[in-house]
Amino acid sequence: MDRGICTNLPSRCSKAATKEMFPMPSQFTTCPECGRRPQRVKGRIATTSSLSEIRIPRGVSIAVGVVVLIALVVAIGWRYLGSSDAIVAGGGGGGSETSMFRLSGSNTIGKALAPDLVKAWLESKGATDITAEARKVPKKDAPETVIHANLDGNRITIEVRPHGSSTAFADLLAGTAEIGMASRAIKSGEAETLRAWGDMRTPNSEHVIGLDGVAVIVNAENPVGALSTAVLRRIFTGEIRDWSEVGGPSGAINIYARDNKSGTFDTFKELVLRGDPLGDAKRFEDSAALETAVAGDRNGIGFVALPYVKTTHALAVNDGESAPLQPTSFSIRTESYPLSRRLYFYSPPQATNRDAKDFITFALSPDGQKVVRKDQFVDLDIAAAETSAAAQTNAPCRLSSAWPGDPNAYCNLRRAAEPLQTSFRFRAGSDTLDTRSIADLRRVLARMEQTPNKQIVLAGFSDNLGAAAGNCALSTARARRVAQALATLGLNAAEVVGFCSELPVRDNSTPEGREQNRRVEIFLR
Question: What's the whole-model pTM score?
């Protein structure tokens, strides 16, 4: 059976300090003391010092046995030193360095946000001499970031490898990363591949660290202000080729797009292309470079993460029957903007270390969310400082003629109460709240503790599949499900109402759109 050596900091784990080996019955074994993934050493070896336990085959002379023994020790030593989990020479202030953990995946997260979160976390732990270096990787446009610091008397490193969301799950599977960064949810196939680690879609593994909107950008001089996802699909597949076809001046449309490994492109494919191939486009691994290219092209159109919109113009977008919305913090927090998305950290529940867990906890804390906000993503603070007027979207509030009651009921609610900047949603095909919604329950609790005199109103919505009466019942049932979850925290909803399939935020003709329309909004009055 293989054995392992813990590579945690000696000050944080006695097994790491003594280099004591322990059995590794599977590749998912972790240190029994600190939970860190160990460095595997093959063979029946108790420790690197107890060399007498290595069995020399019969018939081999003592001299040859010694040679074999030395070769084994050298091989083990090189393997240990060569691992990115191990103590490695050099780096920063000289001496040796220990890798605490590695992040791999989304360029959107990994270019600036993840390094900034790492540095803020290290500062919160009392680390000193924190530096970051860019490391160029052959055949990769985006450089990796290596953060160095002094912590607890040790020189440590943390690596951030931003090469696309799909690489997050490949590296988690390979054991070359402890945290996966993704600007989209894990896919079913990826979750199944990682099944041996546990369920990657539970709150222990899937962590929403912030929100983002994929902004569709055009040159600042382009007069087009809003487009539907259907028209965008025709543009980006090459069906519409001239701006005059969509209300702009005559001129050939030039398409700019992210690369195939990008989570931004995955989101755009899912929400806009919907299975159709991308047309002739200039491709970019880096969002900033794409935005610069569109800014310099009067006929250009592209898509980037919201923080990268600098000198271009972001279009308002609508999906199906929904009203066009700009990508704002409110429309993104409530996920009503059609191209909004979540930013994730993924950590295998059975194969992580304490430092990686502590880092993720920090990212979700108020101090971590300040970093998310500073880097111009949308944080998870559902009570962010926005006036009620500014928080309201430009979406219509009047209910349709199919609504059996007062068509102004929702308008009246929106005027009389403060909308919290979230919407509760559910796991696909289930009445179980998804991971963001579970975390938001406690954010609602924190908000209510600030203003205990406020009353909670829950408004449920459904998709439009099936009979109207059934949809009305479902919308009310979803709101009651959220009320039950809040009640476990001692919060009682003063009113629960279902608005049937009214006021969709996405296209009801698609499974993804219907899933987003099944939501519960929360108000305080």
Answer: 0.76
